[in-house]
Write a structure and sequence with these properties.
The protein is 24% helix and 19% strand. The chain is of the alpha+beta class. The chain has a domain of 78 residues. It is globular and about 50 Å long. The N and C termini lie far apart (37 Å). The structure holds zinc ion (ZN). The site of zinc ion has 8 residues, from helix 1.
């Protein structure tokens, strides 16, 4: 079992800085049932598995909760903020690794895929 730890309610990559926020995209992912990350999976999250008295959810956080906010830099200097989000473990892992390693270009590329996905799913116009 992969246990890459992102504490519930953690805030990833929300660095306070004086930058132009006019290109930012803020998505409230509260009602989004699919993973809004850069993966190719457009399907709804599977129902949780029950193990003993515990439910294990498919997306992260595995507790079934939501991250307050995850963000991706875009090439235009803006950022995509995914608020109240659940995301698949693959996308979470990518985000953490790229963020830790400072792979901005990869994150910018992921942000393009996120926008494409959200447009296709009619979350974004
Ligand atoms: Zn994903």
């Amino acid at each position: 079992m992969s246990t890459t730890a992102i504490a519930d309610n953690s805030v990833i990559a929300s660095k306070e800085e004086t930058r132009d926020t006019s290109n930012d995209i803020i998505i409230n992912a509260e009602n989004i049932k699919f993973c809004p990350g850069p993966c190719n999976d457009y399907s709804e999250e599977c129902p949780p598995e029950t193990r003993g008295n515990e439910k294990r959810y498919f997306f992260k956080p595995y507790s079934g909760g939501r991250y307050n906010q995850l963000s991706y830099p875009m090439q235009n200097g803006g950022e995509i903020f995914l608020k109240n989000v659940r995301m698949c473990s693959y996308c979470c892992k990518r985000l953490i690794e790229f963020d830790e390693e400072g792979c901005i270009e990869y994150l910018q590329n992921d942000s393009k895929n996120i926008i494409k996905k959200l447009q296709k799913m009619k979350v974004l116009a």
